[in-house]
Structure formats: structure tokens, C-alpha cells
Amino acid sequence: MDTGIGDVDGPKAAPRGALACPATFPASSSPASFATSAEATMGRHLARRLVQVGVSDVFAVPGDFNLTLLDHLIAEPGLRLIGCCNELNAGYAADGYARAKGVGACAVTFTVGGLSVLNAIAGAYSENLPLICIVGGPNSNDYGTNRILHHTIGLPDFSQELRAFQTVTCYQAVVNNLDDAHEQIDKAISTALKESKPVYISVSCNLPGVSHPTFSRDPVPYFLSPRSLITFFLLVYVRAMIGRHWAECTRVTDEWCTCRMSNQMGLEAAVEATVQFLDKSVKPVMVAGPKLRVAKAGAAFAELADASGYALATMPSAKGMVAETLPRFLGTYWGAVSTAFCAEIVESADAYLFAGPIFNDYSSVGYSFLLKKEKAVIVQPDRVTVGNGPAFGCIMMKDFLSALAKRVTKNTTAYENYKRIFVPDGEPPESEPGEPLRVNVLFKHVQKILTGDSAVIAETGDSWFNCQKLKLPDGCGYEFQMQYGSIGWSVGALLGYAQGAKDKRVIACIGDGSFQVTAQDVSTMLRCEQNSIIFLINNGGYTIEVEIHDGPYNVIKNWNYTGLVDAIHNGEGKCWTAKVTCEEELTAAIETATGEEKQDCLCFIEVIAHKDDTSKELLEWGSRVSAANSRPPNPQ
Description:
The protein is of the alpha/beta class. The chain is built from 23 helices and 22 strands. The strands form four sheets. It has a seven-stranded parallel β-sheet with strand order 1-7-8-6-5-3-4, with helices on both faces. The longest helix is centred in the middle third of the chain and has 16 residues, at 226-241. The chain is globular, with a radius of gyration of 26 Å. The two termini are 35 Å apart.
């Protein structure tokens, strides 16, 4: 973790042995593109950088400290400012957008906005998402004085917000000096991309519109060592000399400046040790974890699955990162609540390769996994551990999995064992006419509407378990927030994901308790003309918490949810709502929502369910997590 803080007394010297170099250039025929004096401002610089790294939408809440900065974001071609109802949802939207597009951004005001968005930033940090959180900060002249400002806790100390962000971001830049603003901003953005974590950029409110010589050139600088700098310039020179268009240089040099490379000797040693470990096993398996996204190793994992012949599964938080149509795919490995017959094959294996796992109390079902460290090859984004040892550092997961695929011996024993014991899932019992709707019937119908042009957002709660059982067609997206598990995340994340994945119709499954936390930004979905389908499961409370530990605090005030969404709609935008209580009504509602007339319409379907209607997996998981939470203190 690193922090850059401007100095109002003068420019800050660059660290020894490091230089700034351009990594991305505008798509023009000339490398030397200069901005006019009026354009050479810090606000334009920041806006251009966001566009150049792939951000087209910034989720924002205005406040007096960020208003002039927002003017510059609005003025930037290719950048759209989306006003959210509150900062928490703006952060959740940036989280969802980063899942869809690879990087997200939000903009809020000093302290009151920053501390409001903090929970969403912490969630993005836990989920390894590159997110750029921009905060409008105090006037640069107020730093170092004894003044007390509004939006603070009444002390002449402006660092409270910074200190709060230091634990949930990988880099913090406090830009209160134009001399080093260029370096600070670019280092923050490049760090977010390299580390796949959120960063914090505080910009003094009087600086966005001020011109400065460091902003006169268009190229994006990254902070590189001298050796990488020489490599960069050689690459650009060679490509320019052979007549490549400068835009092509942009793409290639950007890849050079953000990639990491494996230690070749370490890679060879790690592959050799792993091959020896796996080839002596009888029934090895492989399991995908959520850090496949960080490592950009999904294709390499599929390559290894094909070459090895191993039975394969995904951890719950990796659902959607590996195609479920791959041969020998078993489903979700989630301990006692795994896909049927998956846990039996994984836990009985004599060797298992986990690629990018996160083992916590939730993913391990209250630490009840039946796995043994000595049987595991753990592949993290930059490290490989074989059994109890040896371990190899500076090994990129993508390189390792691809190299291993070329060496491993094919072994389909585990999958053959699976086929012998597998019994297909049954269908939910047929509903009687007018029978109250069961949740398993709801998800039977959700399964039927999934296509490669769909994506699923699953809220914290029983939707976790019901959505895990959905079989995703090729190309179907899937997202949920398992590590952080913040209720209400899905509303903002749906807004951001749908904005970033306009080629998909997003289907969100949200519980009533979670919806009450963040419901306001349905209005922003309407303003953005989104066409998502929201299934609001109204069962009267926090069902997931009931199964962990019940009490009167898990019961919530019932809302007229369709009436609320109709009021938010208020005749502006395209919105359709329905309330369903039985399968016949659900079928009719889904037919309408997926019909041609509602293809470009936000559809909200409130599903009335019994308060005790839960998946069997939640019952099992809840009891085990409860047992883990209620362990007595160790003897002193």
C-alpha cells in the first residue's frame, strides 16, 4: 500500500531510479499531440485517462468540493457522468461496472461522500476489482492551515478520510499541487490496473480548471523502471519505423506497461514439481477459484482442463469464470452444499489443483471442508505451492497453467468415477392451480430464460444458493459478492453491470431485505434506459440470517414493492411491474417481460414467497456457519 500526498510548497522529486514514460497514446498519426493552454488542465487530464483505460461511465454524487471536477468529466468526449441517489450505490455501481468492463470509477465529495462510499470500496477491494474512487477535496490553500472546514468532524485535520481509505485501497493520491498532479493521477490509475484493487484520488476543488505545462501532452505516463522504459521506447520506435498506425502502438505498449512476467527458471521448476505431484496420483481433479479473474487465466484454466482430462469444478465465487459447458464439468464445489456428487469426487481425490482459491468461513461452510493440504496444488495469481512444499514465487498463473497443460499426463479417472455415481437432478413437483409460489419453481423458470446474451446478478442471501444451481449457457455472465457479502450490493451492482454490458440483458435475483437498503437507484436504471429484469423475492425478512441465528430483528416492515417502483417510475422512462403469487402468474409475467414489447423496458417482478421457503443448501450452510460463529472461547 502506498500513499502520494502533494506538497503546496513546491514540486515533489521523483523517486530515484524511476522515470515517467508514456504508455498509451491517442489514435492519431502523430505521436506528438499537444493540448491548447485552455485544455491543458488537470480535470481534462484525469478525464482523458479514465477514457483511455476503458471507463466510459463514471458514477457520481455531486457535492460542493467536486462540482468543478464533474464539469470536466462531463466535457470529456466518450465519458458519461451518471448521477446516483447516494454514494454507497455509486460505489456499488462502479463495482458492477468493473466486473463487466474490467475497471470502474466513481466520484464523490469530501468526507461526507468519501465515508459514505467507503463500504462499497471495501467490497471491491475484497473482490479484487480495479476501481478508481475520485473525491473532490478541500481548496489547496487550506492544507497546512488551522482552518476548520465543513464536511469534516470539526477539527483542522483533513486526513480522516485518507486514513479511512488507506486500509481498503492499494494506492492513495492526495492531489493538492499541480506540479506533481500528473504523476500522482497516473500512478494511481496504473496501480489500480496492475494490482486489480481500488485506488483513492483526492483532488483539491480549486485545481481541476487550472492549466499546467505537465498536462500539455496527450500520452498517458506510467511509472516504470529505467529498464522497462528503454524497452518501451525501443518497441515504439520499431513499430513506428515499420509503418504501424500509432493506435496499434497504443494497444501494444499499453500491454507492455501493465503486464507482469514470470521468472522463467521458477516457472520451469514449478511445472516440473507439479507434474511429478499430479502424475503419481490416481484420480486428480481441478477447481477454479475467484482469483482467476485477477490473473486473467480463464482461458489457460480451460486449456489445462482439456489437456489433463481431469474432472473440474468451480468454487462458488468463481461461477461464471469458467464455461459450464466444458467436458467433465461437475458443477460448484462448496463443501457440504456443493452441486450433487461434486464434493464427493473432489474430496475423495488423491490430488486437487486449486487455481486462485479463497478459503474463508463462508466458502468452506464454517470450516467444514474435507480437504488436505498435502494433496493440494494451490495456484495463486503470482505463486504456486505444491502440497506442503515446495513453493514458487514470481510465477504468473496464466503462464503456469498454460505450461502445465503441455506437460501433464491425461487422466480421466475422477470423471469416470463421477459418471458411475451420478444421478440427474429431479424437477420440482408440479404446482397445483393457484398454489402459493415456491422459490424452487421460480428458479426453474429463471433457468429457462437464460441465454448467452444474459447475465445473472445474485444478491447476498438465499439467492446465492438458488443461483448457484443455475446452469449457465456459454457466454452467460454471473456475478455475486461472496467474500464481502454486503446486503444491498446487488442494486447498485446491477446498475453498473448493465451499464457496462449493454450487449446483455441482466437478470437480478434480490431479497426484500437487501432491496430495502439500496432501492433508490432503480430510478437511475430508468434514467439510463436499462432493460434489466429484477426478481424481488418478498419473504418478509433476512432469510439468510434467520438460518444462522433467528430473532425478531430479522423481520422487516413489508413494502408495496411494485407500488414503490411505480412511484419511482413516475411516468418517466420505460418500466413495467408485476406482482405474482402463483406459478401461473409467474409464467405470464415472464412471458411479458421477455416478449418483444418489453425488450427495451426495465421489468420488475415481485415474487411473494413464504418466509420459511428456502433452499436446502441454505439450511445446511446456515447451521454450519452458525456453529462456526458460536464456538466458545479457547481456554486461557
